[in-house]
Design goal:
The chain has 454 residues and is an alpha/beta fold. It has 2 domains: 5-219, Spore Coat Polysaccharide Biosynthesis Protein SpsA, Chain A, CATH 3.90.550.10; 231-422, UDP N-Acetylglucosamine Acyltransferase, domain 1, CATH 2.160.10.10. It is 21% helix and 27% strand. It has 10 helices and 35 strands. The strands form 6 sheets. Strands 13, 15, 16, 18, 19, 21, 22, 24, 26, 29 and 32 form an 11-stranded parallel β-sheet that branches. It has a 10-stranded parallel β-sheet with strand order 12-14-17-20-23-25-27-30-33-35, with no helix packed on it. Strands 5-4-1-6-10-7-11 form a 7-stranded mixed β-sheet. A hairpin with a 2-residue loop joins strand 2 and strand 3 (32-33). The radius of gyration is 32 Å and the shape is elongated. The protein binds uridine-diphosphate-N-acetylglucosamine (UD1) and calcium ion. Uridine-diphosphate-N-acetylglucosamine (UD1) binds at residues 10, 12-13, 53, 77, 80-83, 85-86, 105-107, 142-143, 155, 157, 171-174, 200-202, 227. The site of uridine-diphosphate-N-acetylglucosamine has 26 residues, from helix 3 and strand 10.
Amino acid sequence: MERSCLAVILAAGDSTRMKSSFSKVLHPVAGLPMISHVMRAVGAADVRNVALVVGRDAEKVTATAAREGIPVEPFLQDKRLGTGHAVLMAREALSRQYHDVLVAYGDVPLITPAPLIEARRKLAEGNDVVVIGFHTENPTGYGRLLTEKGSLYAIREEKDATDAERAVKWCNSGIMAINGKRALDLLQRITNNNAKGEYYLTDLVEIVRKLGGKAAMVEASEEEMTGCNTRAELAVLEAMWQKRRRHEIMLSGVTMLAPETVFLSHDTVIGQDAQIEQNVVFGPGVTVESGAVIHAFSHLEGSHVAAGATVGPFARLRPGAHLGEGSKVGNFCEVKKAEIGAGAKVNHLTYIGDAFIGADANIGAGTITCNYDGVNKHVTKIGERAFIGSNTSLVAPVSVGNDALVASGSVITTDVPDEALALGRARQEMKPGRAVVIRERNLAAKAAKSKPKE
Ligand code: UD1
Ligand code: CA
């Protein structure tokens, strides 16, 4: 029998310590808002409904979460009276009697589905509450998981703990699973009779035990349970995410010579046997196919690099850059919204924007597509095997035919037919001996200047 599951995601924090004009759960890790990471993790644990407890930026947070394709119901928490109070805001959803209820935090984005799935499995075995814990050398601030003969009997918050309890390094991540049939009844028994005067969700463990129910634990890594309160912690989360993803990508068959200098986006896709050199940055929406090479110091976003293509060093691929198989975009080139045909070469110091470059075309150094007239953008089309001489300006809209040749230094303003040669530059004039005359005149002028005044 399939068990239904509701996730209650807490995201009502004020984000005060982020010192931000918007809710912390909207801050991105790897280019994706934290709340979206959490949505993806619960989705992978087979959650089909989400109750989102919101405060600040309620609408924006709800809309962002809903983009992940799971139905999201927002519940506003006006006053922050504690985690137990926060979960109860979703009373209406909880009253629907799901089999399982998972409580997750919107500011714990590195969470993976594994401990969530394991916690649900333990609910299915007959536990009423399953707490996800982690071991840490630095437990300050966390609730401690108190056990006797290996079974959980209470969670003690730091402020309410004795010295002996504070020495415990087995901590509450805050994430837990609750028997959905009993959740509402259990949650309503929580009081605020404690050091902080808050409704502690963690009291559920003792409540369940007193009622003769069963509590269990699941272990997760400290890393994946790390939360975010400040920008400094955001940077730590980003670093942990990057490290984890680089590792996965390398294990999938991608070579990275200095992985710690490569920055990935949440959706970066890299094929087998691709090579990523040092200091490469992937913005969102990049796919690199197998065997492609991204040389050092390149920056890519919204781009596709087909099999065997090479990029950089020092190249910039902007949104809409599509590099065909075996094509080449070399140093100090910028490509935006352009198709580079298979085998085509854009090797040095070039800007290609709003363009179609045919297969095996060669674009000389310093070529620029003049795509913008100050108001509108225009398209440049270059045919297959066309050869564009160095330092050409292609004033769009304009096209160059297949197998055509454009002389270096040309300014191309009208279409060039297939197989034609286009010369768009002033004819060279020649003045024999004039260089000597000019040099002598210049030397005389310099001597006159440096002569001491009498
Ligand atoms: C909580 C746990 C603690 C655990 C720790 C892990 C309780 C009583 N304590 O402590 O055992 O070790 O998390 O980080 O549950 N939130 C709301 N509304 C509220 C209160 C909290 O939405 O009224 C949200 C916060 O934005 C945050 C999460 O719930 O995302 C946890 O709240 P926080 O105040 O950080 O809990 P802690 O006191 O740190
Ligand atoms: Ca906290």
